[in-house]
Amino acid sequence: MNMRIGGLASGMDIDKLVSDLMRAERMPLDKLNQRRTFLEWQRDDYREMNKLMFDFDQLIFNGVGRQSTFIQKQVTSSNPSAVSVKNISSVNDFSGFLSVEKLAQSATMYSSASVTDDASKTISQIDPTFTSSQVIKIQAIGEDGKLGDEVQITVNPTDTLNSVIQKINDQTDVNAFYDQGTGRVSFTAKHTGNALNADGTEAPEIILTGSFLTSTLKLSSDSDAAATDSDGDGIVYGSKGVNAEFTYNGLATTRSSNTFQINGFEVTLKQETNGSVVNFSSQPDVDKILDKIVEFVDQYNKMIEKINGEVSERRYRDYQPLTNEQKEAMSENEIKLWEEKAKSGTLYRDSVLSGGLTQMRYDFSNEVTGISGYVQLSEIGITTSSNYLDNGKLIIDEDKLREAIANDPNGVYQLFNANGDGETQSTMGIADRLRNTLKSTMDSIEKKAGNTYSTNATFSIGKTLEDLDDRISDFERRLINIENRYWSQFSAMETAIQRSNSQAMYLMQQFGGA
């Protein structure tokens, strides 16, 4: 390191001289750092716009982009305590009447005698003959009314009855239960109805295999046997599954479950109607559908207001990012006011964002071809504001929109979600058009500014930042050399002055001595 002599001989403030000289030398470096800071602000603002568009894209996907949004219906039943009806996937309104002759029931079976007085006992304690592990097999009716696959469970002598019951409940389509009062075990099929084999013939709803089930637990081999009075003494140890029997719009029919679907709506039978008829009908739930469309329009307006604000915000080039030295000379309020100006205009007249806004306006204004009914948003009461200051915001005529939803909710759905040929823009619904535009715009922005997980080398601003970092590092090394040179020169000057002073002093002493 060079020896730094700070003005002892010359009387000059060398520190300040070097500092002032370096301030001038550092000006290009300050400009590089300011450029870097501005690019970071610009990158972050681009990412904020991408987040805004991504959130709107998800709102479309979960709102007006879903058929379920437009098939929400209010369903009325003349006797909801007997029959309830709700819409699942029907796009059209429906109505009808039905009577319930019989409710579906699950097959049951239970022990013919007490098994134990304590279900926490081990199997070997309950049945001393049970000395080795045994694989039991259980088959039961499935949700589709067909006899399900056989399930195998290993029972060990050290297992408790409670633990075996838990295995059965967890692994099979049977609910097992131990009754402390009677000491018996009960099995109930988890699904109602009369079981069928794969070939359509009738089958028991529960089939049990293994001496643990039939001997230790004293159960019948299947639910049919349990429900049969084999001894003629009037005693049975279970009941068969029963299908629901009802008459729908005059047609007598059956189902294995009390809950089933007809033409896209779900019917739940709750009690027998004893010959009386239950009427039901549906109509669009206008309020719920309207709320989703209003939410869509509101979020679109907020998004384009924010983007328009960014692309029209002027840039104040006289207000560059502050250096640390500049901040030290300013108050916090002054720094805040300065940076508000310095940060403005990062996206001024950005072509990607401006192009995305223009394309979205086209997406809304152009009619959807290839569909019947509503082909433009104006037909359902959604128009573009005539005020140019609104920059393309949408306006809703709520009364007209309500009427359109009530008259043809499926037509409103098609306007937003028509598939078309999947390629031609004019045949796509509004929602698909917008999502395509949003994706294209977000992809372009990501090429410029990346995302949270991107490395600088993968997007254009990042590459510029890396280049600036290299230039800044090189310049900082250069400044160190320059500062060392200045100090070396001033030190040499100080040494020369000191030598000159010493020589003058010597001469004065010599002349004085003479």
TrEMBL record:
A GO CC annotation given for this chain: bacterial-type flagellum filament cap
Domain annotation Flagellar hook-associated protein 2 C-terminal: ranges: 242-501
GO biological process: bacterial-type flagellum-dependent cell motility; cell adhesion
Keyword Secreted: yes
Source organism superkingdom: Bacteria
InterPro entries registered for this protein in UniProt: Flagellin_hook_IN_motif, FliD, FliD_C, FliD_N
Pfam families membership: Flagellin_IN (PF07196), FliD_C (PF07195), FliD_N (PF02465)
Entry's localization field: Secreted; Bacterial flagellum
Family to which the UniProt record says this protein belongs: Belongs to the FliD family.
4Fe-4S is among the record's keywords: no
Family annotation (PANTHER family): FLAGELLAR CAP/ASSEMBLY PROTEIN FLID, FLAGELLAR HOOK-ASSOCIATED PROTEIN 2
Protein's name according to its UniProt entry: Flagellar hook-associated protein 2
Main localization, broad class: secreted
Alphabetized UniProt keyword annotations: Bacterial flagellum, Cell projection, Cilium, Coiled coil, Flagellum, Secreted
All residue ranges annotated as the Flagellar hook-associated protein 2 N-terminal domain in the record: 10-106
Function of the protein: Required for morphogenesis and for the elongation of the flagellar filament by facilitating polymerization of the flagellin monomers at the tip of growing filament. Forms a capping structure, which prevents flagellin subunits (transported through the central channel of the flagellum) from leaking out without polymerization at the distal end.
Quaternary data: Homopentamer.
